[in-house]
Amino acid sequence: MADRQAVQHNLNSLLLKLDDPDPDMRYMSLNDLLGVLNSPNSTYLAHDQFSASKLAEGLLKALDDQHGDVQNQALKCLGPLVHRLPFESLASLLEKLTNLTASQTIDTSVPNTALRYIVTALPRPQAGQQPSLDATSAYSAVSRVLIPRLTGPVQSPSSRRGSVVKGMLEKDPSKGFSSDAIDVLIQVINCFGPLLKEAELTALKDSVMSIVDNDTAGTVVTKRALAAISALVLHFSDNQLNLFVKELTQKFNSQPTTVHQRHLVATVGSIAKSAPAKFGPYLPTLAPFVFSALGEDAVAPATTVSQGKTRYRMPPPALLPPSHYWDKLVASCLAKSTTAASFCVVGQRDQNISATFPLDFSSILPQTSYLPHQTLTVFTFGAMRMLNWALSVYGLAACTTARNIITLQSNHHLSPILPRPQDDVSIQTLSVRATGKRCGSGVGKCPEKLCCSTAGYCGDTKDHCASPDCQIDYGYCDAHMTPGGSSTEDIPRPLDGVALYGPHIIRSCTVPGTVALTYDDGPKEFTKDLLDLLDRYEAKATFFITGNNNAKGQIDSPGMPWASLIQRMHASGHQIASHTWSHQDLSKISRDQRRIQLLWNEAALRNILGFFPTYMRPPYSSCTAESGCLEDMGELGYHIILYDIDTEDYKHDSPTEIQRSKDIFDSSLDARTAFDRPWLVIAHDVHEQTVHNLTEHMLKKLIAEGFRPVTVGECLGDPPKYWYREDNTVDGRNSRKNVFKVPSRIVSFDGMCGGNVTCDGSRFGPCCSGTGFCGNLTTFCGEGCQSDNGICDSKTNVAVAVEDHTDFKATGKAMSKDKPAKSDASYMVPLILPVEFAVLSLLAVLIG
């Protein structure tokens, strides 16, 4: 009893501090509150509805705080809170949050994010088990309150009789559709899908399809809607799916606009990819519409002659026997792994049917090749024109969907989309191969050379191996690819300068009149444009660099553009800081792994600049004292930098939604009590709207208000000589010798090589060029070829035979101009130029 009274008194005291005018005090109070909620002594709240409701009200108020770090801490408190709430208080909390989403005066992304945190934390049904009483009670609250608000409209909480508010998924006249609301829906499906009633599934499907059917919905919103469809169809009954297919067929036949047709094609692809077994019977019904979209602008006029070859217009689906139609449309541009993007193949399995249908992309040069028991028509065409075609109209959507349909053959299997981990609602859902071995906590490691995806499956695709989603403890990840040169571990690390070092955390600037714009996760493809913009405004910024994340390759890899961008950053007066090697959560990994995350990034930046930074920002802003992270950062001599304005640009990367990030920035500056109060702003240069829209808005705003855009070091009054540490043991670019021991060589899955990564066996080709790329031409296999990382043969081009449209094997046989090398393969990749290879690799990423 005494413990309970002490906890109750502590909670009441902390709730009073949430009204403190000092944002740091509010933040620290919420941090203490999080500790109390995680304590076993707070379980009494489940039986004390008054105290629980009071606590929920306090957190709701904190969610509307003007400071992003306070809001984020309030969100973290919601997870443990829902485990303490009685059912009545849970339903009330959900209702109040859904009402906030209808407000015109609040950034609705905050309550929507809060809803996702809550839904993720709720007890849920477990596969193969009867739902527990807690899971049933949680679903009851979601069903009674949240689902009706998602679909809407519902009665307004105001006192006006007959007043209604729009559903969260409906289009708002001023804000448009909400991708945040769709994310809430996806989380509801992932958590409670098996319990959803048929009427609820239908209502949710109708709401999502209203977004898909709307030509004005932005790209981000439409993609999230398609992800929701993928999640919904897993729980459809046979009758519901049958009705849904009829609905799609009617829409295809209603002469939709080009944009609408593209959305419908992508919807078919989402169903085929998510529920292939269910979709199979509907293949003859929907696939003709997909291939019609694919070929509509790409098929030559009937019976035209070019260079002595007769081309035929593709017959309408109705004229082709359904039993043979699909095998004849196995185009390599639909293959999941596509260096094959450089040609399209239409083959036949049944020799009694002799029709093949070449696709004409206006620049195709036909050449016919024959393989045993298989007639193939191969077209090699200009990569740039092909790229222009693929990016136009609905080609990409149709190609991707058709690829999903092709994978429904008996020898292809895809697993359904899996739910996000309960402890991190920010991780994106990942679809992986169901045929792979399971891996992860409680299961074990993948076999050698395979990666463990975030969903817990072994494989070797980019989805499996790309960090930070790849599980580094349970298989190979691209995070295990190490930078060249010697370790920086023994370099002296004096704690010089005026800025605090770890374990202290820096959340704000100290020099009046300054604003430090910071950008995380880069460099990426938009970073060059950002540097151009900053130069135009003569503004300085700080870049928190990640060494190898999101499958971009290592920042110090030869031939990649990242090193030159980082050198330009420094030459332009911007500050370079560390955001770790592969963006791991530093609070969730071991001490040795934390040190590697910093040391490897140091080595890569040292290889580029000759020195490395003393400033760092932990990924996900996660570096706790309990995990030992803060102490480790102090031992490594780092300033730990957070922020006091979170633009939340990662949530709003679309032209229709980036205004929310602008509003967050503007409201923070407008609410300041001191005219020249400094600010520390977080954004991400990996997002297109951040670079091309938000940044210029922030620059105009802060300059108009009399602020100076500066680096973090300058806004802290720290002299530039203390921003970096010199490594006098290096002279320019180091070799890619792997000084960090990794058990064995890994076959390249992304076309890059070096260190412990080899091209021998890679689908991109067996030779590793001097610039660190896999290929099969003399430019890869001849002079400069790295024999330690692949096959080198300067006398001949090396052909790459394709055994399956998803798996490639290398062969040492040269491809004759007139006759392909003998192989058991079904397809043969024609040789392509290096520039085409680069373009086609990009296309493969876009399509795949």
Note down, in words, how this protein is organized:
39% of the residues lie in helices and 11% in strands. Strands 11, 12, 13, 17, 18 and 19 form a 6-stranded parallel sheet that branches. The chain has a 3-stranded antiparallel sheet with strand order 5-7-6. Strands 10-16-15 form a 3-stranded parallel sheet, with helices on one face. Helix 22 (629-635) links the parallel strand 15 and strand 16. The protein has a domain at 505-725: Glycoside hydrolase/deacetylase (TIM Barrel, Alpha-Beta Barrel). Helix 3 (49-63) runs antiparallel to helix 4 (68-82) and helix 4 (68-82) packs parallel to helix 6 (109-121). It has 848 residues and is an alpha/beta fold. It contains 27 helices and 27 strands. Mean pLDDT is 74; it is low at 155-163, 296-396, 409-435, 731-743 and 794-848. The radius of gyration is 28 Å and the shape is globular.
Concise structural overview:
Helices cover 39% and strands 11% of the residues. With 848 residues, the protein is α/β, with parallel strands linked by helices.
Q: Residue ranges: pLDDT <50 for 5 or more in a row?
A: 155-163, 296-396, 409-435, 731-743, 794-848
Write down the Rg.
28 Å
Distance between the termini: 59 Å
CATH superfamily of the domain at 505-725: Glycoside hydrolase/deacetylase
| Largest sheet descriptor | 6 strands, parallel
Brief descriptors of the model:
TIM Barrel, 27 strands, 848 residues, 3-stranded antiparallel beta sheet, 6-stranded parallel beta sheet, 27 helices, disordered C terminus, alpha/beta, single chain
